[in-house]
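Exercise (ungraded).
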Amino acid sequence: AQKITQTQPGMFVQEKEAVTLDCTYDTSDQSYGLFWYKQPSSGEMIFLIYQGSYDEQNATEGRYSLNFQKARKSANLVISASQLGDSAMYFCAMRLAGRRALTFGSGTRLQVQP
Amino acid sequence: SAVISQKPSRDICQRGTSLTIQCQVDSQVTMMFWYRQQPGQSLTLIATANQGSEATYESGFVIDKFPISRPNLTFSTLTVSNMSPEDSSIYLCSVGQGDEKLFFGSGTQLSVL
């Protein structure tokens, strides 16, 4: 069965600095997708970035990039130039091909300090 | 991206009652899902809402407790039946557009007294 592991319950970062949120996954499937979501205190889930298992380039979306290391089964989220509004919970998730729903990690609470 | 309207945004309910949560999407989507997020926890899939047929439930979730309807490709409801305080959670609907996009509604914060 697939599993997503986020080992950092909480992280602190200074405003304007970069931060890396860790995510490792476990699956024997060759085809899968990896997602990152942001959940502010309001509770909504905001889609940030997607990486397909066959994508050779790391995904980027503005200040977000995904450091995809397939052999190590890791999909870390890098946030550059942190802003106070980045303070939130961040969830890594995986979807297997043929299974449409997501499996989520336990999340990392990021706090950006001025 | 799809615009998802989820109602109500929050509710406080008495134990033993039921609450129906609505999820409306501004475009037709093939995939709709319902998730639960218990306090301080991650998201857990309740079921996949199938258009025109019974929902597909995950282990630990049953139709009698969480009946789901999906009458068309833009709308679904989740009912939380015979509620107890353990049902206090955020309930989120999610829709899929292709393989790369999975979006969530704003969630329903449910408190059961």
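Further reading is listed at the end of the chapter. For now, observe: The mean pLDDT of chain B is 93. The interface with chain A takes residues 1, 31, 33, 37, 41-45, 48, 90, 92, 94, 96, 99-107, 109 of chain B (CB under 8 Å).
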